[in-house]
């Protein structure tokens, strides 16, 4: 037996058990996609299936969105705390509240099914999923005007939704009364119950096959192995204290800077992330819950190192987090928090990356620009309501060594897992007409590796509509550069009501307009490394492609070009002013 | 001397290592020939296979090809052109304002966690993607006319830039091809080159990114692929072939070289998709049409599902991370094959895959310099493979090298005996195979217990029985030509062309606004192409399908419909399928039609069923040797049979090994192997209740 993997007696069975648990969590995901009603799950994959051990530690989470990483343990442990002696075979639990029940934000509901073998609790098989509507002050779970949690939706402590195999009808009706979309909620809860049922059966049969004691030994072995992998990655970093900070540029009611500050201490293969010094919680709904802060930190670490390292709670057991209560990263009970999975998550990931970048410059990641876009809702053909995301205005990602930033990519908290729609699809579904979605000139942060460019975006909305603004990145550049790389450009956004002039879009809040238009230049990602070391051919390609202007090539990259980049037959040798370039690059 | 009854059919599958040929005589008798592929000149590999088969059959090449009535070919030439980036210099015409959708890629990345891997290089650089003014709305109505002068200028620019193929993808062209057609006509003049791919012809789907990406890939591979095929067809004709050369497409059907030229991207899964023909053939000879196939080669395993005789077709696939939307057989591929590499990671965890050793150096036991243990090495250590000559003499297996690799990379680091380490590798890889099959069935809402598992490919029959048993499958089936599964399938592949028309309509308005005229137009196109392929009316079959969804959802189900079906019958069929797939319904929910589809088939007459002589005496093993069975049974003395000695009627208890020319079949204690009338192996589980 291997000393490295704890109580696992047989290394082959250890590998088979880990592989099987990962597969079971993925299979639960397939069942969820296959049976859920709301398009959130099949389109945006906004859910996570995970398997916790009898102590509530997450053992397997092979499928799910990054911003749910490792956060499921908070929910599992809340169940064990609240129902310690009152958990029986056939029960199923439901929860969402961040303070009472280990939730990450109200729209994400957790269904947890205890698994018993031989009369012993061996596992909690869980599914955390974003619901279509949970009441509160705005349809669709995001209320940009909320100043307290009660305006965001219904709060659920740990509830026994199913008791001894029977759904509690009273509770079920209560839940359906507290949503604007009872059909979707009912269907989605059914899918969550179904996916945990199949997962639970398969975990039970795995544990039976192995024997309870042995299985629990292997569960421990899986966590120890993951801790060993992440520990080894951390041990390669020089011990030390590294600091990073990032700001949000508004509190949803006024423009002001709100800082997340992370002090990362690396010592002996462990890390401590201390948020002391982070600004106090704010009025608006961009406050983070403790579970969400943990998930954001884990996302930052997991995305920084080898993606082959497993992502269970063993992985994260070598990372300690200090999050002062009442701060932006651990808001007090009652604060609005719904936006936290996007913003503050983005700021937390950036702050932690900035710290880690100093510890391991060769793995350094430049900043992903924040998404500026919001939502437009109104009534379309036949008076039917629509909600339209301006996702085609997505921002650019930061560069890393070996690749330029992705030019347009989904939110950082999904690591781009949330994809961008086709304009044609949206023109078919909504009363909109797109004029433009094209890469930005000089948008990407200059660097040895260039940041993603962002895009020019222009859309007509043909009906009167309500515009909700909740993005970031319009006041400042948000895609930070690293190792001498530059920031990507800041975003810009305008709106225009039919017959009126183009005006600057608000940076938060709501605006009602008649038929009109929204234009934007989405922000660019950060560059990596000194732009003057970018190979000349790469600068020439960007220049020729219209992504870098003649002036920027000269100023940022120290490369002089002559002629019009758009001339047919333009060649590298014919466009480069070699002498001037040598002079510029030498200075 | 083998005797072959005329006329015959020939199927040739060019793989990375071997070119497989299967010949079926008029009596249904099958003959397999294998020659090394010639990657630098794949046509040479095909002609070598022709020469080898002719010589083994005692025929001249002209005699062999002259009596062939159907010559079908599967080729990786399109795939390799894309993988190796050896395609044409492509220029792309886009709508003004939407020049970059090809490069933005909708932000899709297969594994979000791996954000350090760059996208593959964009196939058309930005300066060769040229925007033109002109705009259609979502219903195909013109908002701004196409700027013809601009198109002309762009054509001149393409000529100046040395563009070799052009892709045209204009906004909303799925709804109205007029702007694209007009642009193509002008470009043909002002650019002057020969290869124009137009999105409304290649893939008339909604979604500018996927339609454009598919069109660009089609343009990118066109000159090389079509050039290769035309040369091969000419060479075969010169050697005596009197019929057209047919190619296997990703949709599992065949098409002539002449007709593939408009959409060569449809060859992207040319080889593996031929498995459909084999599945259909096996369903016919075995009378069992609920089949799961697991085809395992050197690096990967392809899984397919046939339910009630139907194989699912999907539209979405990615090849080398390039997104394509073309009708394709739904194949789930995992990195688990004979060459899959095992090892122990830095924190003591055993792994197997997804990396493979490829053909060179290959498994450690090949002695070509590989030092990492693979699945083949583990099978050799466990006695399931025999040291010495292997794979028809192309390699020699060295047991000591296999043992050394397993010991140093797996057994020692884990503190295990060599055999335990090897058994661990096999168990982990078989678990991955099991997961692959579970995945494709559970995603469709199907229970694998209902299915018969077809184990094929060179390495499939070694692992099929343990995997089938663990899955709870009814039985496992191994075709005698398991190692030439795809070439076999080509002999049974009807000619097929798919057509679609994006059309949004509420299903309940079908009676008031019938779609008959639109369907007839699609059928007319199908029939005219089939007539050009040489099919008479009675040899043609057209099938109608509808893409349907509940309003508000963004994915469709494809439902077969008959011309007489009204909205109610269609709703019932949709609901049946929906419930099967998704486990629930929306009673009375509004259903939207999103596309009309027509599948045009040119039907090949079914081949005669081969008759093998029945066994007259008991089968005699050629040897018995100790073989590792599983963790419960350990090593057991195991009978080894030669495939050629086994005939219909033979009925053998496991444990046993059967050595066929291109594969080895393994069965354990409690498994029973019978040879059926078609000469294939059926393995049933004696200890399973209700075994079938």
Notes on the protein architecture:
The complex is a heterodimer of chains A (587) and B (692). Chain A has 587 residues and is an alpha+beta fold. Chain A has 3 domains: 3-225, no CATH class; 364-534, no CATH class; 535-586, no CATH class. Chain A has helices spanning 11-35, 39-44, 72-82, 169-177, 182-210, 212-235, 290-304, 313-316, 345-359, 423-429, 536-544, 550-555, 572-575, 578-586; strands spanning 47-52, 58-64, 92-95, 108-117, 120-130, 159-163, 166-167, 240-250, 255-267, 270-274, 319-322, 375-379, 385-389, 432-439, 455-461, 465-469, 492-497, 503-504, 509-513, 516-521. In chain A, the strands form 4 sheets. Chain A has a 7-stranded antiparallel sheet with strand order 2-1-5-4-3-6-7, sandwiched between helices. Chain A is globular and about 80 Å long. The termini of chain A are far apart. The model of chain A is unreliable at 1-5 (pLDDT under 50). In chain B, the strands form 9 sheets. In chain B, strands 13, 14, 15, 18, 23, 24, 31, 34 and 35 form a 9-stranded mixed sheet that branches. Chain B has a 6-stranded mixed sheet with strand order 3-2-1-4-11-12. A 4-stranded parallel sheet of chain B has the order 6-5-9-10, with helices on both faces. With 692 residues, chain B is an alpha+beta fold. In chain B, helix 5 (148-160) crosses helix 6 and helix 11 packs across helix 13 (418-443). In chain B, strand 14 and strand 15 (310-311) form a beta hairpin. Chain B is 30% helix and 28% strand.
């Amino acid at each position: 037996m291997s000393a490295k993997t704890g109580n696992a007696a047989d290394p082959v069975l250890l590998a088979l058990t880990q592989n099987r648990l990962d597969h079971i969590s993925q299979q639960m995901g397939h069942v969820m996609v296959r049976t859920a009603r709301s398009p959130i799950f099949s389109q945006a994959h906004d859910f996570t299936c995970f398997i916790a051990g009898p102590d509530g530690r997450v053992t397997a989470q092979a499928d799910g969105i990054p911003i749910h990483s490792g956060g499921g343990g908070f929910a599992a442990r809340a169940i064990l705390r609240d129902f310690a002696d009152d958990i029986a075979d056939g029960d199923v639990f439901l929860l969402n509240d961040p303070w009472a029940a280990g939730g990450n934000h109200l729209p994400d509901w957790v269904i947890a099914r205890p698994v018993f073998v031989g009369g012993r609790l061996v596992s909690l098989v869980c599914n955390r999923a974003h619901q279509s509507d949970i009441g509160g002050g705005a349809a669709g779970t995001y209320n940009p005007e909320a100043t307290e949690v009660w305006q965001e939706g219904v709060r659920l402590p740990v509830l026994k939704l199913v008791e001894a195999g029977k759904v509690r009808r009273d509770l079920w009706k209560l839940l359906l009364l507290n949503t604007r979309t009872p059909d979707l909620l009912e269907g989605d809860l059914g899918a969550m119950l179904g996916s945990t049922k199949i997962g639970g059966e398969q975990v039970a049969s795995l544990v039976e096959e192995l024997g309870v004691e042995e299985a629990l030994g292997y569960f421990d072995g899986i966590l120890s192995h993951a801790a060993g992998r992440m520990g080894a990655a951390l041990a390669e970093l020089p011990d030390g204290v590294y600091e990073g900070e990032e700001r949000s540029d508004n509190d949803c009611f006024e423009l002001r800077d709100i800082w997340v500050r992370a002090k990362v201490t690396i010592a002996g293969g462990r890390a401590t992330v201390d948020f002391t010094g982070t600004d106090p919680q704010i009025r608006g709904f961009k406050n983070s819950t403790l579970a969400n802060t943990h998930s954001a930190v884990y996302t930052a670490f997991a995305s920084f190192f080898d993606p082959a390292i497993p992502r269970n709670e063993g992985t994260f057991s070598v990372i300690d987090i200090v999050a002062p209560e009442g701060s932006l990263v651990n808001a007090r009970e009652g604060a609005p928090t719904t936006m936290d999975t996007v913003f503050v998550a983005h700021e937390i990931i950036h702050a932690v990356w900035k710290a880690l970048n100093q510890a391991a410059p060769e793995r350094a990641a430049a900043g992903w620009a924040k998404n500026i876009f919001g939502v437009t809702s109104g009534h379309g053909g036949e008076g039917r309501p629509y909600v339209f995301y301006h996702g085609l205005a997505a921002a650019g990602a930061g560069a890393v060594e070996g690749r330029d930033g992705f030019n347009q990519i989904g939110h950082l908290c999904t690591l781009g897992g949330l994809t961008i729609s086709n304009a044609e699809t949206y023109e078919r579904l909504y009363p909109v007409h797109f004029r433009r979605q094209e890469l930005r000139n000089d948008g990407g942060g200059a660097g040895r590796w260039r940041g993603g460019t962002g895009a020019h975006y222009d859309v007509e909305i043909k009906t009167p509509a309500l515009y909700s603004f909740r993005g970031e990145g319009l006041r400042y550049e948000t895609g930070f550069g690293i190792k001498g790389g530059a920031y990507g450009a800041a975003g810009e956004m305008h709106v225009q009501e039919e017959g009126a002039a183009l005006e600057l879009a608000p940076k938060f809040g709501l605006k009602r307009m008649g038929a009109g238009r929204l234009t934007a230049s989405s922000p660019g990602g950060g560059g990596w490394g000194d732009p003057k070391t970018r190979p000349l051919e790469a600068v020439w390609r960007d220049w020729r492609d219209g992504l870098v202007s003649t002036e920027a090539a000269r100023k940022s990259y120290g490369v002089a070009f002559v002629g019009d980049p758009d001339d047919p037959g333009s060649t590298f040798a014919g466009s480069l002013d070699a002498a001037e370039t040598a002079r510029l690059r030498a200075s | 001397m083998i005797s072959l009854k005329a006329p015959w059919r020939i199927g040739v599958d060019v793989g990375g290592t071997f070119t497989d040929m299967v010949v079926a005589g008029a009596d249904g008798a099958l003959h397999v020939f294998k020659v090394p592929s010639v990657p630098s000149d794949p046509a040479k590999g095909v002609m070598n296979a022709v020469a080898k088969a002719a010589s083994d059959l005692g025929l001249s090449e002209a005699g062999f090809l002259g009596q062939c009535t159907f010559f079908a070919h599967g080729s990786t030439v399109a795939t390799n052109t894309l993988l190796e980036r050896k395609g044409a210099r492509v220029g792309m015409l886009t709508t003004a304002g939407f020049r970059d959708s090809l490069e933005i890629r909708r932000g899709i990345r297969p594994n979000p966690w791996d954000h350090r891997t760059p996208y593959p290089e964009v196939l058309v650089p930005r300066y060769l993607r040229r925007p033109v003014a002109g705009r259609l709305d979502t219903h195909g109505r013109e908002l701004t006319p196409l700027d013809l002068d601009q198109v002309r200028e762009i054509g001149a620019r393409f000529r100046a830039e040395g563009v070799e193929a052009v892709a045209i993808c204009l906004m909303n062209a799925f709804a109205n091809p007029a702007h694209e057609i007009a642009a193509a006509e002008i470009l043909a003049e002002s650019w002057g080159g020969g290869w124009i791919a137009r999105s409304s012809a290649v893939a008339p789907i909604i979604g500018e990114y996927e339609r454009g990406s598919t069109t660009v890939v089609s343009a990118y591979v066109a000159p090389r692929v079509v050039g290769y095929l035309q040369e091969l067809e000419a060479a075969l004709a010169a050697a005596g072939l009197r019929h057209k050369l047919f190619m296997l497409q990703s949709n599992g059907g065949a098409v002539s070289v002449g007709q593939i030229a408009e959409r060569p991207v449809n060859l992207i899964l040319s080889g593996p998709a031929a498995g459909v023909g084999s599945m259909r053939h096996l369903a016919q000879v075995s009378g069992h049409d609920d089949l799961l196939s697991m085809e395992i080669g050197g690096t990967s395993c392809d899984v397919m599902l046939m339910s009630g005789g139907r194989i699912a077709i999907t539209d979405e696939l990615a090849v080398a991370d390039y997104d394509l939307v073309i009708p394709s057989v739904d194949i789930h591929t995992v990195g688990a094959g004979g060459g899959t590499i095992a090892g122990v990671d830095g924190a003591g965890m055993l792994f197997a895959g997804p990396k493979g050793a490829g053909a060179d150096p290959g498994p450690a036991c090949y002695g070509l310099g590989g030092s990492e243990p693979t699945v083949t090495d583990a099978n050799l250590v466990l006695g399931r493979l025999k040291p010495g000559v292997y794979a028809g003499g192309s390699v020699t297996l060295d047991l000591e090298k296999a043992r050394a690799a397993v010991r140093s990379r797996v057994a020692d680091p884990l503190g295990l005996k060599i055999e335990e380490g090897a058994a661990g590798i096999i168990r982990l890889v078989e678990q991955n195979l099991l997961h692959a099959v579970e995945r494709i069935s559970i995603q469709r809402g199907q229970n694998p217990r209902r299915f018969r598992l077809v184990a094929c490919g060179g390495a499939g029959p070694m692992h099929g029985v343990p995997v089938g048993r663990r899955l709870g499958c009814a039985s496992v089936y191994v075709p005698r030509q398991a190692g030439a599964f795809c070439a076999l399938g080509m002999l049974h592949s009807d000619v097929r062309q798919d057509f679609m028309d994006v059309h949004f309509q509420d299903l309940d308005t079908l009676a008031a606004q019938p779609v008959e005229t639109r369907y007839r137009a699609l059928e007319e196109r199908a029939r005219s192409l089939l007539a050009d392929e040489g099919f008479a009316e009675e040899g043609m079959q057209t099938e109608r399908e509808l893409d349907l969804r509940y309003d508000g959802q963004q994915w469709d189900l494809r439902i077969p419909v008959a011309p007489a079906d009204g909205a109610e019958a269609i709703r019932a069929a949709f609901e049946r399928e929906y419930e099967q797939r998704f486990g629930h319904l929306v009673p009375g929910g509004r259903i939207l039609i999103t596309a009309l589809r027509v599948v045009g088939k040119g039907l090949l007459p079914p081949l005669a069923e081969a008759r093998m002589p029945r066994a007259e005496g008991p089968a005699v093993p050629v040897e018995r040797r100790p073989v590792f069975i599983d963790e419960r049974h350990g090593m057991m003395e195991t009978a080894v049979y030669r495939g050629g000695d086994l005939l219909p009627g033979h009925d053998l208890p496991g444990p046993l090994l059967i050595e066929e020319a291109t594969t080895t079949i393994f069965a354990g204690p409690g498994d029973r192997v019978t040879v059926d009338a078609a000469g294939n192996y059926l393995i049933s589980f004696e200890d399973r209740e209700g075994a079938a």
